[in-house]
Amino acid sequence: MSTSRSARHTVPGAADQPEPIKAIPLRHPIRNIVAIILILIVAAFIWDAATNRPTYDWPAVGKYLFDQRVSAAALVTIELTVLAMVGAIVLGTLIAVMRLSPNPVLKGVAWVYLWIFRGTPVYVQLVFWGLLATIYKTISVGVPFTEPWAVWTTQDAISVFWLAVVGLALNEAAYMAEIVRAGILSVDPGQTEASTALGMSWVQSMVRIILPQSMRVIIPPTGNEVISMLKTTSLVTAVPLSTDLYTRTRDISAETFNPIPLLIVASIWYLFFTSIMMTGQFFLERRFARGTRFVDVGPGTPAAETASVPTVSTATPAAHPNKGDGS
Fold it and tell me: Which residues of the chain are under the pLDDT cut of 50?
């Protein structure tokens, strides 16, 4: 028994291992009291709204929540959000790359675009897009200063729905450009130098190396912009487009002279869509953050949260015959 005990103590580093720490959770009585008070306040508000406020008119909320007109308007709102964001992401990425380009002409054009679309309210821009048929009555295709090949009236060529999509996308592209630019600048400059050393052009370096690595920084604010775009679609009445969720519920409330239940209906639909988008954003962030947020430090030990982990050799001097022998 003594031999086995001594053998156990001769294992290198075995005697130096510290005993496991038994952590006792810190109690927070004040935090618990504040949480209970907040829960009681919320419960009291819900009870008051459900029983003492007839103006909420909950039966009307249930009646119009899944009304066919409201459901169709919710679908139009989703279409506006998706189409506008796709256009904004593509155009915003292009503008961000132009701003970082060594070409001064491209950089200047991108700066002027951002100056115009970030400096004016989105509602004013949508009003301008609604007046496009007044400013440009016809759209013609052909060689300048010659007879046009084809002529269309602006109202027939572009519907109000697509005017709303274009107006929202152009405004959002200015903000997406700054988000993408911040993501690109977050990538270590050594990545660009390494891609140049491999013979890649500036465009190839952006597409293959820089943009994929910048996604970890780009995804979170982009998710916020998607949610913001969902709510911004309520402004398309300025175009004017009357088939979106907010405008349709407002029109129904004008018929029934009961606006509060229809506002609640619109809010429920917006909250439903926002909850789905927030869930998708969470999984996207977790996917693009793989390998950068959590590091497995060994079995039985909780993962450590870190941004980057340097590689350190743990080999002993005996493993390297040229080290530790004076050579």
Answer: 1-9, 294-327
